[in-house]
Input
Amino acid sequence: MKYQSVRRLLGAVTLLVTGIGVAPGVLADGAAIISHPPATTPGLLTVTDGSTASLNEARAPVTSDVGYTAVTSAEADTTSGVLGGYAGFELEADATTVQTVIGTPEDPAVSEPKIGDTLAVSHATSVLSLQATVGGDPGASGLVTVLLQMHGSFLATQGVPTLELLGSLGAGRVNPASPLDFQVFSAALSIFTNALDPGVVKADFESSVSGAGGTTVHPGAAFELVSLSPANLKAVMALSFVATAGDQLVFSVGMAGLAAPEFDPEDADLSGLYDVDGIVLFPDFVFDDGLIDVFASAGATDFANTGVLSIRLAPGLTLEGVDPLLANVVTTVPLPGALWLCLSVVPLLGWRRRS
Output
């Protein structure tokens, strides 16, 4: 039996967000991205340091000819390190949408995640990037931890909409004196609810570290689910790694929200885990014929209040550069605190589903 499947939209957003951290200038220093039917390309606004990227702050709605109304907005402040956004929709009547094939267990030839243009999804993404050089005495090294405090809510005003909130952290470290001494770190936390388990909020967490020796799960990534109440979602995620004075660092931090209509659970086959080109995929929804029945519904993922970036350094290290974020988000952690940060990630390792 062949499956047609798709990674959640925010899985693709994760790649985008973490990719900024290793490709400076791709989306400047801050970016706001919104996408919804019937638009064929996402709205994108990039800004440089000292500015705020903001799209559709007034939350003006857009309605398609099939009775799908979307409200999306996104904001990223490159001075304060604050991220915000909103993704909402209303579908007036039941409909059928099409799912794009990305590969199957039997035929993994198409392995690049793609989203069908006809899939009625509203999403908003806010991204910040930061570049700096590690300062300190020659040879000094210690822990660098980038954190994202996430706060948002799910609003289900009709039916059982598909709602998701994603936080993403990315960091790149390179020793300019030895270009093969580099590492790329990433972590993503997804909080979601859908018709497979109505009224229940769940979470996924995954992490990785890549370098000259390959890619593996990063033991320095951690998260805490403070509240999974739909009206008061709270979580903290952290990405820690060791850096040495003189290292060049690039950080990327993003939050995204997704809102899509309620789908028919009878269409879904969760036989799910399979491998495509060596990458294990965790599709939420797997459909036999590529067709998804969706029902009249309405809802939103609201993270306008907000995501907050911070960076903590071990004593003896500084971050040097001209980015205004350095003055507002970087703090030095006393030694016991730095040690606690290092040890606290141990029981939270891995990338398995957690609910």
